Amino acid sequence: MTDHAAVTKVLDQMSVIALDCSIWSGARRLKPEDLVLGKGGQLPSDEVVSLGSKKLCKREVLKPFHRLRDQACRLCGREGVRFLGGYAVPDHYVSGLSLKLDQVQQDFNQEKQAFLTGYDQHIQEWVNTHPDFAEAIRSAVPDVQDVSQRFHFGYTTYKVVASPQPDNLNQQVNQLGGTLREEISRDAQALFEQTFRGKSKVTRKVLNPILRLRDKLHGLAFVDPGISPIVQRLDAGLSQLPNNGALEGEVLTQLMERVLLLCSVEQMERCAEGLTTIDSPYKEQPVKVQNQESTQPQEANDAEIQKEPAVEQQMVVPEEAAVSATFYF
């Protein structure tokens, strides 16, 4: 199969979803006349002024919009992989994902209407909080209609078709597998650090984020022939887990090793080549007995609207001497 034919085959199985979200900053440019210095003058609080801008309302009233934007990114990132400024999503996932994004859009518009309804009150409360800077705030407050146009949430779904000169596009498509492994690795590292490190016993809820990573790999396996072997190894290992009860002992060790497989792009590539022994970038830590069940962010996974996206977490992989981890698949 030629490279062009292979790229076309990948493109035929996926769509691109591009998010379009804008949120009013709640700030305006700071002008020289806003600052009254000299005898008797005072610099305004850094809560209201920072880096050349002045805030016009409390930050908290804008948080629902940022939360919904992050939620939309997580929804797309769960089933898709970054591509051309959007997310490449398997065609058979587009319908379900669109329904979820439609709900986010509805929620965003409701929050927008609520914010605009209380706009004057938000401004007045901010003025009351910073009376010494009241005039500078009032003079910069935009009209509510102008603010209304600053809020928007939408998305576009489209198919990509190879062009007559497809070199650049082919390169982007051929990188999808690498991008997918990088995204899986980043999320798996967050999962390992937050859920497994130092634990001797975990509940079965930890399987939910692992299965989400597995499903993402499975759904996008068509972008790279090296993805399916990883899914097969995960499935073979997960099928050996007991059907109920907490996970501990050898069972937990095996489960952690599977998560470690996903933590490393290199290890995923090696396992795709049929290797069963891999080098772990993590130094094994002494297992500490936990007297109480920890509350894990992943275990609150399905309340993801309240969470910061895992994709934004900066995970620090210790630069320890490599140790060997054997998979039990």
Automatic annotation (TrEMBL):
* Protein name per Swiss-Prot or TrEMBL: DUF3150 domain-containing protein
Q: Which InterPro entries match?
A: DUF3150 (IPR021496)
Domain of life of the source: Bacteria
Task: Indicate, by first and last residue, each region the UniProt record lists as having compositional bias (Polar residues).
Answer: 288-299
Give the residue ranges for region: Disordered.
282-310
* Organism annotation: Endozoicomonas lisbonensis
